[in-house]
Amino acid sequence: MGHSEHDVLARWRCELNQLAQRLRDSADAADWQQVQQLDSLLAQRLILLRQHPAVKGQLATELARLQAQHHSVMVSMREVRRVLEQEMARFNAQREGLRVYEESREWL
């Protein structure tokens, strides 16, 4: 492997490791907008990486780590969404109950 090939591989390794860490940090901070932006960036970078199969083949460890991190973050995000949907449903049910109660008091 030539010097420039080694540099390219090192840059990709660094970038993929940083993306994995940024995804985790953003999820831990519940910064879902940042997670979404990183997810888009990741998709763009992986499309670019497909154009370099030799480099991609040498990044199997980093790609596996990033894939695991991405999966974990997506699971966390779905769980947060599920909890928020439940809370919204509960809130809406309570609000409807209060509205009915207020209307029934007006009849008295």
TrEMBL record:
Name the record gives this protein: Flagellar protein FliT
Lineage: Bacteria, Pseudomonadati, Pseudomonadota, Gammaproteobacteria, Aeromonadales
Organism annotation: Pseudaeromonas sharmana
